[in-house]
Amino acid sequence: MLKNEKILITGPASQVAFPIARELVKANAVCGLARFGNPADRARVEALGVTCFAADLARDAFDHLPDDFTYVLNFAVVRTDNFDYDLAANGEGTARLMAHCRKAKAWLQCSSTAVYAYAGHQPLKETDPLGENGHRFLAPTYTLAKIAAETMARFGARQWNIPTTIARLNVPYGDNGGWPAYHLNDMIAGSAIPVHPEKPNLYNPIHEDDSIAHIPKLLAAAAVPATTVNWGGSQQVALEDWCRYMGELTGIEPKFVETERTIGSVPIDLTRMHQLLGHTTVDWRDGIRRMIRARHPERLRQ
User: Fold this and answer.
1) How far is CA 298 from the centre of its chain?
2) What is the DSSP string of 238-266?
C-alpha cells in the first residue's frame, strides 16, 4: 500500500471509501472531505485518525482545504434526486476540486458501471455506449451525475495536467455493506428481492479487500488523457446465486419478484482491468460468508 503520502478522500464515510480510508491512514496522512451532515459519520471517520473537512461540493469554496495533496481519491456521491443540485455537486464539484488540488501526482475518480446502456448479458467494455440500465428507478439522478463527473474528470486531467484514472465500479461489497447486504436485510425481513426478467442477473461483485489492494495500481495507471477502466471482481456472479448462497448460510430462503423497474444485468469485460490491476483474490462465496459474519453473525449457521 501507499506510504508517507498526503491523501485526500472524498466521501470517506461511504460504504466503499471507509475501509479504504481505514487502511490508508495506517501509513499516510489522510484527510476526508464531505458534507458531514450526520455528526456520527464525522466522528466515525475521525476515530480512524482521518482529518476531516466539511464542504458542500455543489456550492462551497475549498479555501479551508489544503492544496498540497499527493493523491486524491474522489469517492463522493451526491444523490438528492434534484438534477440541478446533483449535477452541480457531482459534475461541477469534481472540476472545482481538481482545480484546487491540481498539484496532485494522481487523481482517482470512482465512477460506476451504472453509466453503461443496458446490454443484457453482454460483458460491457470501456468503449461501449453509455446510457441507462435501470438505476433511474432507484436513484433518478445517479447515472447522469456519474457521466457528468466522468466528463469533468477528463476535462480536469487535460486542463491542469493531472494524471487521472476513472474507475467504473461494479458491485462493491464486504463487511461494510453493499448491495448483497441489502438483499440479506430483505431476506431477514421476509421481503421479496426485485430481479430483472432477463435472467440470470449477472454482475462482477468486488470485495472491499480487493478494492483496497487495487488503490495503488489504480493511481499508478493514472494518465493524461485520463485512463478509464472497469473495476469489479474477476468472477461473474448472478444476483440470484449470491442470494441463494446467503440462504444456504442462514437458513432463510430468498424470495424474488420479477420487475423491469430494477437494475438489469451489468456484467463487465475485465480485460483492461486484469492488465492494469491483476485479478481479484477474494472468492465471492468467502466474501459473502464474511459479510454475514460481520453484519449478522447471529444468522450464520454453524
Assistant:
1) 28
2) EHHHHHHHHHHHHS----EEE-SSS----
- Amino acid 1: pLDDT: 81
Cβ-proximal residues to 293 (8 Å cutoff; 6+ apart), any chain:
300
**Cell digits of residue 245:** 448462497
If DSSP codes are grouped into helix, strand and coil, which group holds residue 256? Answer: strand
Q: What is the pLDDT of residue 133?
A: 81
pLDDT digits (tens, 9 = 90+) for 52-106: 999 999 999 999 999 999 999 999 999 999 999 999 999 999 999 999 999 999 9
What does each C-alpha distance from 237 to 111, 266, 280, 298 come to in angstroms?
A: 21, 10, 14, 26
Residues 165/227, Cβ–Cβ less than 8 Å: yes
Handedness of CA 139, 38, 104, 210 (dihedral sign): negative
d(CA 206, CA 183): 16
Q: Is 223 helix (H, G, I), strand (E, B) or coil?
A: strand
What is the rounded distance in angstroms from the CA atom of residue 170 to the CA atom of residue 106? 22
Say which residue the cell 447486504 belongs to.
181
Task: Classify 172 as helix, strand or coil.
Answer: strand
224 membership: H or E segment, kind and range: none
Provide the β-strand partners of residue 116.
130
Domains and CATH numbers, the chain: 6-172+205-231 (3.40.50.720), 178-203+236-266+282-299 (3.90.25)
Q: pLDDT tens, 93-118?
A: 999 999 999 999 999 999 999 999 99
pLDDT of 127-175, one tens digit each? 999 998 888 888 899 999 999 999 999 999 999 999 999 999 999 999 9
- How many other C-beta atoms are found inside a 10 Å radius of the C-beta of residue 155? 16
The DSSP bridge partners found for residue 195 are 258
Neighbours of 123 (CB within 10 A): 17
Q: What is the predicted pLDDT for the residue at 283?
A: 98
